[in-house]
Amino acid sequence: MSTPDIAIAEAPSRGAYQTRDRILDEAEALFAHRGFAGTSVRDIATCAGLTPASLYNHFSNKDALYRAVLERGVQPLIERLSVLATGQDVHEVGPQIIEGIMAHLAEHSHLPRLISLEAATGGEHLNELARDWIQPLMNRAIAAFEDESHADSTWTAEEAPLAISAWLYLIFGHFSMAPLLSEVLGRDPLSPEALADQSRFLVKLAKQMSLPVPDDGAA
């Protein structure tokens, strides 16, 4: 008798988790195309196949939903870069970091456009986005330049933020400009083949820029 009771008790939790992810997927896409101000809770609920009242069972308001989209999208990137502070040899993990970031953004391809739109329009969440998410992301990356093992890097400590900013443009831009690149290049930049090519290119570029990746790595 106990086993069926346990199964019944666990099912709502799994279902709630799936519903929450579906809400976040739809919210990410709508925020990316319409911005925070141009997206309503009703819009998100409708796209997720819910009523607004049902959505509020998962998120207290639109601000909380927006923050959850950013947390789901950016926190894993920060965590991937955090390995640089764990004592691991960045010459070994560099390519894996680049490939992991690209793979994560492939699953959340609307996120870079959301961030670009917020930056371009000076949205009401711009300061929060910069302070809570982009700054920690850059700090983790800049820390790699301060490691003694990179003392022979082409870039000075003063140039490190500029180099990391350029990498944000390169990586995020591949996703946020995908519709334009599709027309220019004649293929879908978000296809598995194009993403694999872009990842290899970025690893190779990192070597050319004297960033911490091996000379005989994946590229």
Please, could you describe this protein's structure?
This protein has helices at about 1-35, 40-45, 50-55, 60-80, 90-105, 110-120, 125-145, 160-175, 180-185, 190-210. With about 220 residues, it is mainly alpha-helical. The chain has a domain at about 60-210: Tetracycline Repressor, domain 2, CATH 1.10.357. It is globular. The termini are far apart. About 25% of the residues are buried. The model is unreliable at about 1-10 and about 215-219 (pLDDT under 50).
Features of the shown structure:
single chain, 219 residues, mainly alpha, Tetracycline Repressor, domain 2, 71% helix, disordered N terminus
Secondary structure: elements and pairs:
Elements: H1 2-34, H2 41-47, H3 52-55, H4 62-81, H5 90-107, H6 111-121, H7 126-145, H8 160-176, H9 178-185, H10 192-208
Helix pairs in contact: 1-2, 1-4, 1-6, 4-5, 4-7, 5-10, 6-8, 7-8
CATH T-level topology of one domain: Tetracycline Repressor, domain 2
Distance between the termini: 56 Å
Can you tell me the CATH class of one domain? Mainly Alpha
In percent terms, what proportion of residues is strand?
Answer: under 5%
Structural class: mainly alpha
Number of helices: 10
Quick recap of the structure?
The protein is mostly helical and 219 residues long. It has helices spanning 2-34, 41-47, 52-55, 62-81, 90-107, 111-121, 126-145, 160-176, 178-185, 192-208. The protein has a domain at 61-208: Tetracycline Repressor, domain 2 (Orthogonal Bundle), CATH 1.10.357.
